[in-house]
Amino acid sequence: MTETQPQTDIDLDPVTFEVLRSSFTNLVDRMAQQIRRTCYSFVIYNRDFSNCLNDAEGNTVMQGSKDIAVHVGTLHYTCKETLEYFEGDINPGDVYIVNDPYLGGTHINDVRIMRPVFHEGELIAVTQSNGHWADVGGPAPGSFNIEANDHFAEGMRIPPLKIWDAGEFRDDVANLLTTNMRLSEDRMGDLRAQTEATRIAEERLLELVEKYGVDTVTTAFDESKDYVERIMREQLSDLPDGTWHTRDYIDADPNKEEGFVTIDVEMTIDGDEVHYDLSGSDEYVGNFLNSTFGTSFSAVVSGTKMFFPDVPLNSGLYRVVSADLPEGTVVNAPEPVPVTGSVAGAYEKVMNAIFELWSEVLPERAMACAFNLEYLLAGGQDQRPGRDDQEFAWYDWMAGGWGGRDGKDGSNATAPVFGAGLAVQSLEGQERDTPLVTSEHSIVTDSAGPGEFRGGCGLRKGGRMLACENSVMSYCSDRARSITWGINGGLPGVPHGVTLTRDGESEDMGTVFSNVPIAEGDEFVRPSSGGGGFGDPLERDPEAVLEDVKDDYVSVERAERDYGVVIEEIDPDVCAYEIALEATGERRAFIRANREDWLREDPDAITERYREGELDKLDLIRRYGVILDWSSGELLERTTAEFRELLQERAASEWTD
């Protein structure tokens, strides 16, 4: 679909244009306020939602100032598909609902509500609200089913439907949908909250039309898109033409032998446009970590936008940024391939790969890899007093570390890059709603990737189940093997994964599982990785390493093994430490002389030393580049070879003697 040009000859003066452009932003942000005040879902309350204003053709005119990245680049596709679906039958008072990931959406939990806006009988705009519903049916509470072979085993896939028809609420349609979802009352509440948000936006837009005239407002729509296109082209024109290439990985395809799944990204700047070619990516995988076209295009847009923070976001940007996303690959899975876990899978891999590419073009804004998004979900029957066996759904994500930057350490305990506007969920709120108590929530020492500028630190979060029955747990993440990586000589973070303790027995559950039975007294803990390091860790100022030790960001042991800084413990209780300068010089010289050889040592021998307790997990990852199945201790030979190649390219090639 293409955009038409403005149908009037109105030439807006700069003041009117800025007033209207800002009014559009305010309109969308008011939708966000409405949703937070009236939603039923704790997930949506913690900002897993986005809103936008679309023009009459479905093009995005404005998104909210705090919308999360994963919805960026998809809302206009959904709107266009819906308008086309109902072409000839679009009426005042209509409201549409859709969550179809194969119609330009993300995954089935992201439910979009759209309201066409009319003025004097003419369609002039669409207001749209997207919210992540905590459950949309299927066999796994939270609708994250790692065992799904197709979308039929994930939950309710909703094509474009009328939920309000010419002002009349379709109870039958709404009940059909929500009764097939857990906590159906909450789902109905979220539906109404999002619908009301679109109504408030319609009301505000028509106030602007009343004040400025419909032609002026719709011309401002077009000029807003032209403005974004113009400033993006201007900034690209100042950059050198060329092609840059990199790749990132999903840990494995469960239907194949061990080894990484490649997401290949080539970026070309040609004059005032930028194009991404992902055709070198592997075919879709045998679980739900695949992305659809819409999700991957969103990752392309979001990854690019991170390096142009001053450029507003609307469809004008999509005239400048383009992408090849071949169908059948992990970045464009066709229906009915499952895609619910896409954001923890292909999506953030595309974003981080693009970060690395732009770090070469704009080194002053460079950033290493950020931690991987993860979701832990539990559901069942709440047996606490007064709960009457009611259903519960605990739906949690963690903060983690972003990558080290050129001249600055990465951000600690920050929301995932897929949704920088996400809030860290209130532990007290979670404990009130669900039979689960948080036992630990703290920064993980040594989780940050070492570098001249280290990555930000990750977190560890633990919990214990209270009185519950018929309860299960599911988890969605990645990077237990393709561990958060550094650039320009920086080193990786730590693996993701969950440890579950039942009946006194602890088990490493890995990064993807569904419907594991849990009961009262069961405990779990999971860390998020820190960001990858930027620059050679041996070039980090020893005083900065000392401060990290005092802050518990780095242990005394890893200060020596990762940074070559020898620190004497005078009195740890009062943070009294001292750098052993002579020993530090000797240690750094020793590491420089040996570290490239360490990456070539026999992986079997290294694995045996690990099993004997001579080496720990971080030694394997950061020093020897050896990757195991962390639950069984089995050496992953192909994965190790690929991981070592990555370390060679991103780290060892940048080290100097």
List keywords for this structure.
657 residues; alpha+beta; 4 domains; seven-stranded antiparallel β-sheet; 24 strands
Question: Mind explaining what this structure looks like?
Answer:
GO terms for molecular function: 5-oxoprolinase (ATP-hydrolyzing) activity. The protein has four domains: 14-231, no CATH class; 242-534, no CATH class; 536-582, no CATH class; 601-656, no CATH class. It is of the alpha+beta class and 657 residues long. Helix 5 crosses helix 6 (214-237). It starts with 13 loop residues before the first helix and ends in a 7-residue tail after the last helix. The chain contains 15 helices and 24 strands.
Query: Major sheet: size, sense and barrel closure?
Result: 7 strands, antiparallel
Q: State the separation between the terminal residues, measured CA to CA.
A: 55 Å
* Approximate shape: globular
Number of E-state strands: 24
Strand order of the largest sheet: 2-1-5-4-3-6-7
Question: SS-based structural class?
Answer: alpha+beta
Radius of gyration: 25 Å
Strand content: 15-25%
Low-confidence stretches: 1-8
Name the helicity range.
25-40%
Report the total helices. Answer: 15
Domain module tally: 4
Mean of pLDDT: 95
Pfam families: Hydantoinase_B
Domain Hydantoinase B/oxoprolinase: 13-537
InterPro entries: Hydantoinase_B, Oxoprolinase-like
GO cellular component, one term: cytosol
